[in-house]
Structures are given as C-alpha cells and as structure tokens.
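Notebook p. 47: complex prediction with iron/sulfur cluster.
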Amino acid sequence: MPSRVAEWRAASVVKDTWKRPLRDLRISVVDRCNFRCPYCMPAEIYGSDYAFLSRQQWLTPGELRRIAGLFMQLGVNKLRLTGGEPLLRRDIAEIVATLSDLPGLKDLALTTNGTLLAGYVSELKAAGLRRITVSLDSLDPIVFREMSGERGELETVLEGIEAAQNVGLDPIKVNVVVQKGKSDRTILDLLEYFRGTSVIVRFIEYMDVGTLNGWRLDEVVPSKTVLDLISARWPLRSLEPNYRGEVARRYAFEDGKGEIGFISSVSEPFCGDCHRARLSADGTMYTCLFATEGINLREPLRAGASDADLVGLLQNIWRQRGDRYSELRERKMNEKKESRIEMYRMGG
Ligand code: SAM
Ligand code: SF4
Ligand code: SF4
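Predicted complex, structure tokens below:
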C-alpha cells in the first residue's frame, strides 16, 4: 500500500501537454561572467558598458529557497546552480547552504567555468554542495584562450578541478563544447589527461542557443563522430542511463579507466524526456532553453503572493508547456528567432 505522503506526492506532480513531469530546476544566480566564450557571450557584444542586471534585481538566498521549495511541491527534486558564472556571486556559499537542506531534495549541483573554484570549494562543500560540473573546452592553451574569449587561465581551471577532488566533491564532471575547427582537434589530449581519474568528461554538441553566437550547422560535430574518434583509440562500451531523462549518453572505457558522456541536442534531440525548468537571476521562469519569453515570478513574490498562489501559477505554466524546439529544429531554424533568450541569462 502506498503511504499517504507518497499518494499526495504522486497527485501533486504536474505534467505538461506532452505528459512530461517537472523534475529539474536550473537556477541562474547571476547573468555576469568573467569569460566571453564566443558561443555564449561574444566579447564584441558584451563589452565593458553592457548593462547586466543590478544586484537589487537578483533573487536573494531566501527568495531562491522559497521559490525552489515551491517547485519541489510540484515534483522537482534536482537543482542546479548556474549562470553566467555562479561563483561571481559572493553569497554563493550562502545560496548553497540555504538550498541544500530543503526537505526531499535529491541532488544539488553547480556548473562553473572553474576560474574562481579553488578559492571556493571548501566553503561550497561545507555548505552542502554534493557535486560539481566544470566547463573546460580544451587543454590546448591557445584553443582554450580562444574559446573563453581570451579571458581564461587554463592552469587556474585545472587547479580548481584538483581542489574540488581534494575536498571530495563527487562526481566531478567536465563539460566540453565541441566546435568544429576548434575544440574538436584537442579531444584526445583532453581525455588522455582525465582518463583514469574519477572525472567524467562530457562532450556537448555546439547549440544554436540565443541569437548572438553566429551559430552555423557546419560548426557542429555530431556526437557520433566524436564517439568514433575516441573508440578508435580507446574501445568503449555503452552504459545504461542512471535515471529516466538523463541528458547525457554514457560510455565506459573498456579498460576500466572511467566514464564519458555525450549531450547531443542537435543530432539526437531529447525533448521527449525533458523535465527541466529554468529560472533566471531576476526570477523569470523559462520552460525551454530556446524560449522566446518567460514568466516573471519575482514580482508576485515581492508583492506578497501566498505559497498557494505561487504554486498555482507554476502549475498553470507547466501544464501549458508544449516546448520541443530541438525536435523541430529544422523547421524552427527558418523561423524568426530575434527574441530568443540568451543561455547565460536563463541558465545554461
Ligand atoms: N559559466 C558557467 C560555465 O560555463 O560552466 C555556467 C553557465 S554556462 C552558460 C553553462 C554551460 O553551457 C557550459 O558548460 C557551457 O559550455 C554551455 N554552453 C554555453 N553556450 C553553449 C552553446 N552555444 N552550445 C553548447 N553549450 C553551450
Ligand atoms: Fe561565461 Fe559560461 Fe557563457 Fe562561457 S559558457 S561565457 S563561462 S556563462
Ligand atoms: Fe528541453 Fe527545450 Fe531542450 Fe527540448 S529544446 S530538450 S524542450 S530545453
């Protein structure tokens, strides 16, 4: 017999128009970044006078906890903090501490470019962070510099990863955006470095997010090409997903030297299992990475809306959701895209 709590939980899980539940919330805590990766925030557009959100517009740690708790009432059990660069928020450890003890939370993770990581890992671990993802496109200093918009220091990022290992954040994942003519040339060297450590490297197809990165299909390297390249050097076997809706396809090195993954939004869209909502630093909710508009939650929150009102609002938004951009990419690519929200803003 299911318990009353289990029955109540099952009844309160909200589903969208494609019967997809809401399981996962990505929270962008800040829209600023200390990198200018050309595929995300091209330096020529995001100059020193660019108007980012002001601090007053950011949700506070208390507001983040309240909103995350409301999402959890509807089925969310996994939170990821991201940005922009989340470690640019000085109160990031406080945010982690405020979220990590939410009752029922199964997973709390953070995605960072790693530059400030070494200085933060102990505080983050103590605050309750369980695992971390570091974005690192190449170990070739020239390719790395180019793909960070001439901002990043490779050694600092590697020190950050080592520091995360030393405090026991586990697993540590490394995200590599594969762009033709750039990071695709340095994949094997990067794997040579991380193979045999517990770090899980994941290769992400370059996506047409936002409107400003000048994305071209011919710069996308399909995951299959990367898989063939890697398995010609180190034989691989596929692994079962850890859970339904896992975004990355997993593989293990046959020689037992660890695991890698592929996130193939362009060549193998996974909209059918997309259980993810996004929240920007100013409290706007988005139901798809390719959304052209969002819903402002901060306004009702600061105007004193009750929990029941806010849960009702979230429920309505999710019930109306019909997004599946990646499955319709070819058709959508030819439509107007001027108003698509940038990834650093809605939370990558
Ligand atoms: N600044 C942090 C970082 O880079 O890890 C967190 C935010 S960033 C927007 C989150 C992830 O989105 C990173 O792993 C980044 O590589 C990825 N990303 C950004 N633009 C992308 C694009 N056009 N295609 C694929 N992945 C992208
Ligand atoms: Fe910054 Fe991350 Fe975007 Fe690069 S991918 S510009 S590090 S937010
Ligand atoms: Fe989810 Fe939208 Fe990406 Fe499809 S395109 S997987 S609906 S975020």
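Notes: The mean pLDDT is 93. Residues 154-167 form the longest helix (14 residues).
Next step: compare against the earlier run before touching the bench.
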